[in-house]
Design a protein that fits this description.
single chain, 206 residues, Rossmann fold, 6 strands, PRTase-like, PRTase_dom, ComF/GntX_DNA_util-trans
């Protein structure tokens, strides 16, 4: 068995639906943040479809204890990104945080583990405490975009005493749908002085 097959079989790994820079889904993902001139790029790695392989992977990562799978996938994506020669030059990789209650329930933050995997090939440190989720929110999957955006107001904060002026950040999450969660993070990063934000997610939904 190949080393990677401890986390995902080779057949599944090779069949992952990679998103290319000029794909329609990639363009749609970037368009969700057009109101923020601080957001320089948006880079989802895979295309998400209901009942598809990426959804199965995300369920494994989030609900079935797939912590090592999340880190492995981050490393795999980071290596691919590094070889392509087009990852952004940033100072920090920052995962979207879980609320402490959700973190206790799950035992790990899948976005932070993915970020840790990414950080190695990108030679960029991870700061898993820069952002804090102040409000416990229920699942947003069945809400409309406007409802999600409203639900994400005042949910996040930046660690006290941090000045992000001149700091470039790669903001990392698991999946991009409406973009409401990431918008909430972008807003507080900008308020803290950040003027260069890049976004990366495991997947994006069309």
């Amino acid at each position: 068995m190949a080393g990677s097959e401890r986390h995902i079989c080779t057949t599944c790994l090779l069949s992952l639906p990679w998103l290319h820079n000029h794909s329609l889904v990639g363009a749609e993902a970037a368009g969700k943040f057009a109101a923020f001139h601080e957001v320089m790029s948006v880079h989802p790695f895979f295309e998400y479809h209901t009942k598809g392989i990426v959804q199965a992977l995300l369920k494994e990562i989030k609900y079935k204890g797939g912590s090592e799978l999340s880190r492995f996938l981050g490393s795999h994506c980071g290596e691919t990104w590094h070889v392509s020669g087009c990852p952004p030059k940033v100072d920090l990789v920052v995962p979207v945080p879980l609320h402490r209650r959700k973190l206790r329930q799950r035992g790990y933050n899948q976005s932070e583990l993915f970020a840790e995997g990414l950080s190695g090939p990108l030679s960029t440190p991870v700061d898993g405490t820069l952002l804090r989720r102040e409000v416990y929110t229920l699942s947003q999957t069945k809400k409309k975009k406007e409802e999600r955006i409203a639900a994400m107001q005042h949910v996040f904060s930046v660690r006290a005493g941090v000045n992000l002026a001149g700091v470039g950040v790669l903001l990392v999450d698991d999946v991009l749908t409406t973009g409401a969660t990431l918008e909430g993070c972008v807003e507080v990063l900008v308020q803290a002085g950040c003027r260069e934000i890049h976004i990366s997610t495991i997947a994006a939904a069309p």
